[in-house]
Target: N(6)-L-threonylcarbamoyladenine synthase
Amino acid sequence: MSPLKMTISLFICTTCARWSTRPHPSFTVHSFSPATHSLPSARRQSSTSLPSAINGTPLSKKEAGREKRKKFIGMAKAVDRGQYTHTYNPLKEGGLFVAKSGVPRQIEEGKLFTVLGIESSCDDTGAAILRSDGTILGESLASQHSIHQPWGGVVPSLAKSAHEDNIDNVIQTALSNANMKIEEVDAIGVTVGPGLEICLRVGCERAKDLALRYNKPFVGIHHLEAHILMARISPEKYNNTSIPSDKSMSRAMEFPFLALLVSGGHCQIMKAHGIGQYSIIGGTLDDSLGEAFDKTARLLGLPVGGGGGPAIEKLARTGDPTSIALPIPLQKRKDCDFSYAGLKTAVRLASEKLCIERDVESAEQLSENDKANIAASFQHTAFRHLEIRLNRAMVIVSKEDERISTLAVVGGVAANNELRSRLEKLCLDRNDPWKLCVPPPRLCTDQGAMSAWAAVERLLVGSSDSAEGQEVFARYPFVDMDSST
Model:
């Protein structure tokens, strides 16, 4: 590896999937009250301050931060316990949704409307025009696979530059594919977090500029909620550009439901009560499932420009999932949290043992059959861990709320066909079978339609943001309803 390549590799992101208050003068500010209790404000000062000293000994800022983090060892990541300055909650004090930049007039008239959605949270630049019944009218996606392939992961600075080069063309292509002009779009939604901050900013600034210039309602989208809400689009709406026969805006499922989010940066189980209203049941203690796929793919020398998940899935099809014994994580821990760091280490150790037996120096030099067996064994064990935790969550939820019998599986890893098949069986093989809702594989990964649809959902409950002064957030956890009541 050259010195330059070694330096840049230090900045590779391993958590990507491969995540003014003045209203516009032409719109009315609305307040809507959902049939739920109120939640705390989404933006607040951290309630967990840094310790200043231990046993009278002053701490540096770095030491104080380390001591603070010790409080959360053994707890699921990306869950707010008072340590985050910014959390996501579109409900304001009193449990009201507020349309800071208004809503499309078509909502009050009972008519369909259109939204331009923009996504730039990681390494793909996406835009889509989506009608409020879920129909995708036009979309465009600029992939960065070839840019990041040589580095074995996403390089944030390169991703940012590619977003800047592609953003205008991607938006224009989506509009052209929908046979529309920007003036004809009724609202604009853009991902504002979580994700790579310098990448998020590219899409957000462009969306803000368009919303202010053309006087459009603006919605700052939570990337993970956008993944979750994609499962609510009725399947018949995918790529259906015909004129709708009705304006019922039917959904594939209604709230409440159980959601499993599996991506490169996140792994969570949560109850979805409504827009912006989630209860966290389980999360990863260390690595996400997608991250474990990526690192296993790199261990085997597989191409990861398009994400380690697809590479492992393809290779695993020809392997024996029982050929290598790997430990299922957290067998003694009877909760719904995940851990993939230990499994990742077990795969590495098993690979090293196989290398000694085959007299080769690295896993990359193993035969295709050996690699396929490693990939299949890893994937089987990773999914078995997920099945055990998810089954436990389904049992808990069924006892707590008999209304919940639907599972939404979302995020980039949800595109894996083996996982989809196994979770479908998990839902059907119950005394009272559950309904499984999973978006098509191409809509599980990051793209503009998810931002557009999340904006539709927010606007329909009367929630929008002010484009002026909108920020982006690298870390942006949900407010946990169970811990906030």
Observations:
- The longest helix spans residues 368-400.
